[in-house]
Design brief:
Helix content: over 70%
Structural class: mainly alpha
Oligomer: single chain
Strand content: under 5%
Largest sheet: none
Order of helices and strands: HHHHHHHH
Shape: elongated
Number of helices: 8
Radius of gyration: 23 Å
Length: 205
């Protein structure tokens, strides 16, 4: 049989209602189901119902595995951010500025500035995500979504859970630590925006 555009939308909607919320995963699964059904000769809806009765559990299991794989790829991308030259350039600039300000007696201002800059940068990522998913109600992509969560968790642990003030007694080491974390957030933003652009181009969103 020939699967029509409306029938493809039907498959996509069915998968979404079944809990497959990520657009890229539904795209792959919808294409797979449509390809299988095109090899059938009967009525589309009868064949679809029969296929889902037999394969739905396996499809949903595959979706969960796909999501986990996307999470792993997200963390790998975060690790790669640590070896980019831009990361070291930004960290060096921030650390140098903090040392110069410290020599002039602006020690407290350095810590305040790092804190404000951190929350400002994180706010950029968060507001961009909220605007895309909540306000504009754009479909979620597994890669972007998992990267967002992986980045948020990593930065939260490094900046708020670790408590660097208790680890480093010397302000110089604290400056270096904060410079590294802020640089990491900058790289996260760059990777996040790049990843969103890739998915937008792929799915014409």
């Amino acid at each position: 049989m020939q699967v029509t555009d409306s029938q493809i939308k039907f498959i996509d909607q069915y998968l979404e209602n079944s809990g497959v919320k990520y657009l890229d995963i539904r795209y792959e699964m919808t294409d797979h189901v449509a390809t299988v059904l095109e090899e059938k000769e009967g009525d589309f809806y009868d064949e679809f119902q029969a296929y889902m009765a037999k394969n739905k559990a396996e499809l949903l299991s595959s979706a969960r595995k796909f999501s986990k794989a996307a999470t792993i790829r997200a963390f790998k991308m975060l690790v790669k951010d640590f070896v980019k030259p831009q990361f070291y350039i930004v960290a060096t600039i921030l650390f140098t500025i903090s040392l110069l300000l410290n020599q002039r007696g602006y020690n407290d201002a350095v810590f305040t500035g790092f804190t404000i800059l951190y929350f400002l940068l994180c706010g950029i990522v968060f507001s961009s995500y909220v605007h895309m998913v909540v306000i504009n109600k754009k479909p979620e992509w597994s890669g972007v979504n998992r990267f967002h969560y992986a980045a948020a968790l990593t930065v939260y642990i490094l900046f708020l859970v670790v408590k660097p003030q208790n680890m480093f007694k010397d302000d110089i080491y604290l400056f270096l630590y904060y410079a590294v974390i802020i640089s990491f957030v900058v790289m996260i933003i760059c990777s996040y925006l790049k990843l969103r652009k890739i998915y937008k181009l792929r799915f014409n969103e």
